[in-house]
Design goal:
By secondary structure, the protein is of the alpha/beta class. Helices cover 31% and strands 21% of the residues. Helix 4 runs antiparallel to helix 8. Bound molecules: zinc ion (2 copies). The site of one zinc ion has 4 residues, from loops.
């Protein structure tokens, strides 16, 4: 039995781990490296294993850094079975299609640029090829086989039983316990996936399987503590009330998956509890977020008891009174004619692309408008630049002065913080070996110092270990 690491090793994105047992090869996640240009290129590198030899791919959840290299895996010869929860299957399809589309656009944009510079016919500057396109994402669908139900052991292959448990991170997310048998030897290996921040309203708290011989554990926020969700919700309501009182429009840049639905949920609650001004004009201006919200409506089995109860009572927890969905690009453009009182939720969350950039261009220079940031903003992204207090930013070739009010709400993380990660590990019980993945080295070192009764490894890319 062997375990090898092919992504999210001493870094946060690109999750991909391989288990070799009883002659089978089981992959856990196949995510995209995201962030800098170097990481962008890392995606095109060989996987470190032959995709054609993989029998089963177990997918923990639908975030791009966990499913985003699946179309590439299929393109390079994977013909096995993909197993995940029903919600993950639907969300992953959406996420992969969107990624294929974005990569085609990006490749077109880069090719156009070299053409303008006269390099187009130079063999060293052939038109850029996307990592994969929409069709490659569509082609993945046929490899999605059995769906996993939370808590029900699944015989994925002879000698290999997988149990998916709710990780409480995003809709359909799971930690996966593998019970491996080879030549009469048995090992229990637990993959945490991404562990949720407990106490969030929509999802259940993470479920923790006991007794694993080895744990492969995420460590994204292994060095810090989150502020309580309640505090952040109060701040959100105060920011919206304050922003609307300025008389202009309000932009909320947000991720399409989970965060957008969470914001809709908080708006619903805020209106009901009269903690927000009545008669909000809310626009969800993101085809991807609208499709994700539809998927959320199909999966009441994933919710925490209170939210599930709302669904059973026929109440839709995302149906903000007056909410309008904007799918068409023309409708999105038309929103900028509204000069007052519009609350526009649009992607992307870090303002690196998507419709939000257009709204920022129209509204950042208006002193009575506001931008409310509710999510993580990576170094160097437009969101981070605005949050850091830039006096002006470049958008679509123009220098746009920043006069709008900027609010930053910090506590809406979908990830467990240090305290929760340590508690999670403790609840697993004594694990001989703990592999920390999905975190920066400095952060992993801090977390490692807090974990007890285990030997901690921080595997390097393409390293492997006997189990
Ligand atoms: Zn995730
Ligand atoms: Zn992740």
């Amino acid at each position: 039995m062997r375990l090898s690491f092919h992504g999210a090793d001493r870094e946060v994105t690109g999750s991909c781990h391989l288990v070799h047992c009883a002659g089978r090869r089981i992959l856990i996640d196949c995510g995209l490296f995201q962030g800098s240009r170097e990481l962008h290129e890392e995606n095109a590198e060989p996987f470190g294993f032959d995709p054609a030899e993989i029998d089963i791919l177990l997918l923990t959840h639908a975030h791009l850094d966990h499913c985003g290299r699946i179309p590439l895996l299929v393109k390079r010869g994977f013909r096995g079975e993909i197993v995940c929860t029903a919600a993950t299957r639907e969300l992953a399809r959406l996420v992969m299609l969107d990624a294929g589309h974005l990569q085609e656009e990006e490749a077109r944009r880069r090719s156009g640029r070299s053409e303008r510079h006269g390099h187009y016919n130079n063999e060293h500057h052939a038109p850029e090829q996307p990592l994969y396109g929409i069709l490659d994402a569509v082609n993945c669908a046929e490899y999605f086989g059995r769906t996993a139900a939370y808590g029900k052991p699944l015989d994925v292959a002879p000698g290999i039983v997988a149990t998916f448990v709710d990780a409480g991170h995003i809709l359909g997310s799971a930690s996966i316990l593998l019970e491996l048998t080879e030549n009469g030897r048995r090992r229990r290996v637990l993959f945490s996936g991404d562990i949720g921040n407990s106490g969030r309203p929509l999802l259940r708290n993470p479920v923790v399987p006991h007794d694993a011989d080895a744990v492969i554990m995420e460590s994204t926020y292994g060095d810090r503590l989150h502020r309580p969700v309640d505090t952040s919700v109060t701040e959100l309501y105060a920011a919206i009330s304050d922003a609307l009182a300025q008389g202009g429009d309000v932009i909320i840049p947000t991720f399409a998956l989970e965060r957008a639905q969470e914001i809709l949920y908080f708006l619903c609650q805020g209106l009901q509890q009269k903690r927000l001004p009545p008669h909000l004009q809310v626009f969800l201006d993101s085809p991807m977020a609208i499709s994700a919200t539809d998927i959320f409506e199909h999966h009441p089995e994933c919710y925490d008891p209170d939210t599930a109860e709302l669904f059973r009572g026929g109440r839709d927890p995302f149906a903000v009174p007056g909410l309008q969905f904007v799918r068409e690009a023309a409708g999105s453009m038309a929103l900028d004619q509204i000069r007052s009182g519009a609350l526009i939720i649009a992607g992307s969350g870090m303002c690196t692309g998507g419709r939000v950039r257009h709204h920022l261009k129209c509204n950042l220079s208006r002193a009575n408008c506001s931008v409310i940031f509710v999510g993580y903003a990576g170094e160097g992204t437009l969101a981070r630049i605005i949050i850091n207090g830039a006096k002006s930013v470049r958008l679509f070739g123009d220098e746009v002065p920043v006069k709008a009010h900027i609010y930053t709400i910090g506590g809406f993380s979908a990830h467990a913080d240090q305290r929760e990660l340590v508690a999670w590990h403790k609840r697993v019980g004594r694990a001989e070996l703990t592999f920390l993945v999905h975190g920066e080295v400095k952060v992993m070192q801090v977390l490692a110092s807090r974990l007890e009764n285990t030997r901690v490894e921080m595997p390097a890319l393409n390293s492997s270990y006997d189990l």
